């Protein structure tokens, strides 16, 4: 599928999705948001894609936020629709049954930080910078920043970042748990691929189960979440991959999973 703002490359069953507006620091305009929705659907439907990496073009930015020149044209009603639409697409990305990692290669501000947080986890280059500067523009984050940031880093740290609009460097983002690991810029994509390969060696239904369970538990009570986990545990113990995984362990050989 041709995209005007994204580069999509399939590398050995991992889709490398690059937001490609480097002259505007990959800011999220309507076309980028629409195409992120399209590529999210592609990742879900295309069986040759088993995982994805999301990154930004150029050495400077992952995504420097919503496109402020477009945003500035919005009245109240349009801004609300823009937020609802983007939020829905980010949520679809987050609900993917296939792992999606954000390779944060520079500024991840506003919608960029929110996009990274909607991915399943984040790996950053040492020059990455994070922040939610929306308060400086007179708005709150519109793509889930007030929702996902406290869940990731805790309420106090999130509120400080949200209310100050301050930028933090990669080291601080790693320290507070916003990113899983830091690597040099040239190692960013190889490191993401390495982590995803480790995940893809595992039973696909079990990997999807982890994604689903961790997402679901946030809307359930502790007891409901534990009950749901037991149910999924039982279901997966009925799969061919469970026989294969346990059999391979006993036979001291590498498991060959089929996703069934
Ligand atoms: N929306 C639209 N355009 C943006 C943008 C955004 N969020 N962020 C950067 N750009 C554009 C700049 O306008 C500039 O375009 P131009 O060359 O046509 O003038 C280009 O990208 C390069 O940005 P510039 O500001 O010159 O780079 P810098 O290194 O001096 O500063 C930032 C980098 C990220 C600190 C700065 O661009 C910035 O503060 N961006 C906005 C961040 C923000 O508030 N995001 C949240 C939006 S809700």
Strand and helix layout:
Blueprint: E1 6-11, E2 14-19, H1 30-45, E3 51-56, E4 61-63, H2 68-71, H3 76-94, E5 100-104, E6 107-109, H4 111-118, E7 121-125, E8 129-131, H5 145-153, H6 155-164, E9 167-169, H7 170-175, E10 181-183, H8 188-200, H9 204-216, H10 222-236, H11 240-250
Parallel strand pairs: 2-3, 3-5, 4-6, 5-7, 6-8, 7-10
Antiparallel strand pairs: 1-2, 8-9
Helix pairs in contact: 1-3, 4-5, 5-6, 9-10
The chain binds coenzyme A (COA).
The DSSP helix count reads 11
Radius of gyration: 19 Å
Beta fraction: 15-25%
Strand order of the largest sheet: 1-2-3-5-7-10
What is the chain-wise order of helices and strands? Answer: EEHEEHHEEHEEHHEHEHHHH
Structure overview:
The chain has 260 residues and is of the alpha/beta class. It is 48% helix and 17% strand. The chain is built from eleven helices and ten strands. The chain has helices at 30-45, 68-71, 76-94, 111-118, 145-153, 155-164, 170-175, 188-200, 204-216, 222-236, 240-250, and strands spanning 6-11, 14-19, 51-56, 61-63, 100-104, 107-109, 121-125, 129-131, 167-169, 181-183. It has a six-stranded mixed sheet, with helices on both faces. The protein has a four-stranded mixed sheet with strand order 4-6-8-9. Helix 1 links the parallel strand 2 and strand 3 (51-56). Helix 1 (30-45) packs parallel to helix 3 (76-94), helix 4 packs across helix 5 and helix 9 packs antiparallel against helix 10 (222-236). The model has no long low-confidence stretch (mean pLDDT 97). It binds coenzyme A (COA). Residues 24-25, 27, 64-69, 107, 109-111, 133-134, 137 line the site of coenzyme A.
């Amino acid at each position: 599928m041709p995209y005007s703002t994204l580069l999509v490359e399939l590398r050995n069953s991992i889709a490398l999705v690059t937001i490609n507006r480097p002259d505007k620091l990959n800011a999220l305009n309507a076309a980028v948001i629409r195409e992120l929705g399209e590529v999210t659907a592609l990742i879900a439907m295309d069986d040759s894609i088993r995982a994805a990496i999301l990154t930004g073009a150029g050495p400077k930015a992952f995504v420097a936020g919503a496109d402020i020149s477009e945003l500035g044209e919005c009245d109240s009603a349009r801004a609300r629709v823009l937020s609802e639409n983007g939020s829905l697409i980010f949520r679809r990305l987050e609900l993917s049954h296939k792992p999606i990692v954000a390779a944060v290669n520079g500024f991840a501000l506003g919608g960029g930080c929110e996009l990274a947080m909607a991915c399943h986890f984040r790996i950053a280059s040492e020059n990455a910078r994070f922040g939610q500067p929306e308060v400086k523009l007179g708005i709150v984050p519109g793509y889930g920043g007030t929702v996902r940031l406290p869940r990731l880093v805790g309420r106090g740290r999130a509120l400080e970042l949200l209310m100050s609009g301050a930028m933090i460097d990669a080291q601080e983002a790693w320290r507070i748990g916003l990113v899983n690991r830091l690597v040099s810029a040239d190692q960013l994509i190889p490191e993401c691929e390495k982590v995803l390969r480790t995940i893809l060696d595992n039973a696909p239904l079990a990997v999807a189960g982890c994604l689903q369970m961790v997402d679901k538990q946030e809307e359930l009570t502790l007891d409901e979440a534990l009950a749901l986990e037991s149910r999924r545990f039982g279901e997966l113990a009925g799969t061919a991959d469970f026989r294969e995984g346990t059999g391979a362990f006993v036979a001291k050989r590498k498991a060959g999973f089929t996703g069934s």
